[in-house]
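Usage example:
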Amino acid sequence: DLDAVRRLIRAAERPVVLTGAGMSAESGVPTFRDAQTGLWERFSPEALATEEAFLADPALVWSWYRWRARMVRSVAPNAGHAAVAAWQERVPALEVVTQNVDDLHERAGSRVLSHLHGSLFAFRCAECGAPADVDPGAADDGAAGSEADLEAMLGHQPPPCTVCGDGLVRPGIVWFGEMLPADAWDRAYAALEACDLAVVIGTSGVVQPAASLPFVALGAGAAVVEINPDLTELSPAVTHRLAGPAGVILPALLS
Ligand code: APR
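Running the assembly step on the lines above writes:
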């Protein structure tokens, strides 16, 4: 299958890469639904990634996202991110659409068309929506991303909005039950509808509406390739499946 997919990649004129948490796993950023231990169980994204959780305990939710931003600052893009960036360098028509809220694609040199679920580094007022300029900082002892760093973050109240003075600053993340940013969704949908190849990397394909995007590409007649060590909701529908980690498969595929 690797050769078949290599041929599809070479022939693709309007390729799209759609990534999920598995794309950043080899950088050391935990995924959401793999068998997690410890930290991720204690702070379940499902429980904290909601407006209700933020309103109920702003300090806890604020601390969690601020710690996740610091953790991303402390890791590096992996070989998979680098391979995608090199592909886009060669084929500028390549569009990168991600569910990830980290900036590892950008730090590897990719131009990202759409962050479907927002970004850990975008902050805004929960009331008036004004963008807030917040630096999540990085642990002074370089321990960002550690449990100790999270403990140090816990309990810090989110800053007040400096524009309206009423609201609290919240993470620029799409929480469960919230609408995706219309422009991010529209750009992603158009790209998947127009592509002739979609390479779907590191997503379990369970969270809507992002999980419907591979089917938009299939419906438009594109070939869809899945890169994932495990089977997912998407596996039965894709054209080709490459089983393995993104950081290993992508360099082999795109070299
Ligand atoms: N390379 C490729 N895929 C991997 C790797 C790897 N090294 N390691 C794990 N995976 C796969 C897992 O097998 C799983 O299918 O990545 C997928 C991660 O799935 P999830 O944790 O569900 O992440 P994702 O699909 O991106 O979640 C979607 O849910 O929590 C919300 O908003 C959050 O954007 C997120 C959305």
